[in-house]
Amino acid sequence: MSDRVWEVTIVKYGTRSTRRAEVFLNYHAYHQEDGPIDMDYFFWVLRSEEETILVDTGFSRIGGDRRRRTMLTEPADAFRLAGIEPGSAPRIIVTHGHFDHIGNLSVFPDADLTMSRKEYDFWNGPHADKALFAHSVEADELAHLRDAVERGRVTFIEGEAHIAPGIRLLEIGGHTPGQCIIFVETSEGTVLLASDAVHYYEEYETDKIFTSVADLVEMYDSFALIRELVASGEVDHVVSGHDPSTLGRFTPATGALEGIAATIGAAHPPASGAHSDAQKESAR
């Protein structure tokens, strides 16, 4: 384990109410009744004594409105509540290029970004404008990403990279060609920020595929890998990208983020270092 200890904060800023058949690919194949399902939208903050890193930036007002998503808190306001001032230059990890993950990069015009080269190349390649891919992105947001590259603000990873002591990125694919997951060392064990490699916990638990997928085989393989990481004890907590149960699996945030966030670990670990029973169950 790294000697740098991180705190993970999960911040909810948006939501959506829909049907199961709308979020799981070919839902009829599971021979299950359709029914209502919600989808929550998050960004994540990683904080240590040395630095603060923002993971993804949520959807913009325009991007959300076009898709009839409900914005509960303006992301710029939520960033501020999480201790990240709009206009500042935190380090930002981009897990993938969809509208609800890069929608507010413009709030941080001078920030340095880290992302998968495969992901960036895909959204600037010949398939990005195909309807089944293009509906998940915003052209002006991709243009902002290109501008950041041209200004030398983007660091690309390929495959796997340790980007700070206690933080490792792994390119896992499936949902998008360069979808990344993030391993974070905390005082409560290793946290896997799955982003959209796991929209809902039942995806990796029961091999259900989300409706938006770039490579079906890679998606199944990513589920198998995450199950293996949990079973082996290499990962203690899995944090989904959109599951409404996510906040309830972890310690509720207090102060300015009360009611819209949860935390795992602490930048200053407790003396006991003990896990609560609820937190031990969070990866299962």
TrEMBL record:
<keyword id="KW-0862">Zinc</keyword>
<keyword id="KW-0378">Hydrolase</keyword>
<dbReference type="InterPro" id="IPR051013">
    <property type="entry name" value="MBL_superfamily_lactonases"/>
</dbReference>
<dbReference type="Pfam" id="PF00753">
    <property type="entry name" value="Lactamase_B"/>
</dbReference>
<dbReference type="GO" id="GO:0046872">
    <property type="term" value="F:metal ion binding"/>
</dbReference>
<dbReference type="InterPro" id="IPR036866">
    <property type="entry name" value="RibonucZ/Hydroxyglut_hydro"/>
</dbReference>
<keyword id="KW-0479">Metal-binding</keyword>
<dbReference type="GO" id="GO:0016787">
    <property type="term" value="F:hydrolase activity"/>
</dbReference>
<protein>
    <submittedName>
        <fullName>N-acyl homoserine lactonase family protein</fullName>
    </submittedName>
</protein>
<dbReference type="InterPro" id="IPR001279">
    <property type="entry name" value="Metallo-B-lactamas"/>
</dbReference>
<comment type="similarity">
    <text>Belongs to the metallo-beta-lactamase superfamily.</text>
</comment>
<feature type="domain" description="Metallo-beta-lactamase">
    <location>
        <begin position="40"/>
        <end position="242"/>
    </location>
</feature>
